[in-house]
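[Meeting: bench + compute handoff]

Bench side (C.D.) handed over the final construct sequence. Compute side (W.E.) agreed to return the predicted structure before the next meeting so the bench team could plan truncations. Sequence as handed over:
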Amino acid sequence: MLNVTVLVSGGGTNLQAIMDAIDDGRIRNARVTHVISNNPNAYALERARKHGNIEAEVLSPKSFPSRADFNEAFYQRLMEIRPDLIVLAGFLVVIPESVVRAFPHKIINIHPSLIPSFCGKGYFGLHVHEKALARGVKVTGATVHFVDEGTDTGPIILQKVVSIEEGDTPEVLQKRVMEQAEWKILPEAINLIAAGRVSVGEDRIVHISK
């Protein structure tokens, strides 16, 4: 059984997609044991508590005298939990290098674009879709990737394309990307990992076995 910890800052729609996929069998041999948020008002915490059997907690940089103190507390808490997989589901906090080193190829992130487009520092949330529309691209999508020391630079696991339609606003596009891509490939990636079908080669290319 793959024990999963989900890190989230906001409403938790991707968390809900994960929990729903576990409940209906699209994710097998995995369970969410912990949800951690940097935001005490994140609705994701309520989603976790309502679901039951999930420990929901707040760990915020604002509660510590320095970012270094937060990073150490964050690292220590994850070392206590010892998750098999850490899922960043809209987590707006930079993951400390100590955590990345402690969990190699055990941290994944969902990003609302087709990496390497519209990613990196400053590209999060609605900003990604604003930039995509401003550039005039005809397709966008979402990417699930492993987390490394960079920003959106880890090995890519899955991607899914979403069409951009005439008259799209950033908000409309954000919703379409979530519904058509994020909520589908994030649970799929977790299921593949739980089944032991995902590996990373020396070339940093992800291989998915049948």
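W.E. noted at the follow-up: The longest helix spans residues 170-194. C.D. will use this when planning the next construct.
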